[in-house]
């Protein structure tokens, strides 16, 4: 629910960040005795940013 006094707008513009940089990681754990598996998922955001340092610019 939005906070009091805050109006949420429906936007026809796609959410660029969500569509291109958000995903879901799924982890599984399996028992080696009974071979039963459990699964857990977590959302993640991954944005790669190239950084350059002054030392690298001289090369």
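^ Assign residues to that structure.
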């Amino acid at each position: 629910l939005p906070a009091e006094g805050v109006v949420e707008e429906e936007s026809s513009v796609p959410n660029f960040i969500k569509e291109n940089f958000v995903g879901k990681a799924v982890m599984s754990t399996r028992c080696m005795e009974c071979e039963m598996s459990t699964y857990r998922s977590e959302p993640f955001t991954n944005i790669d940013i190239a950084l350059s340092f002054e030392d690298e610019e001289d090369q």
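Residues 51 and 57 are 11 Å apart (CA to CA).
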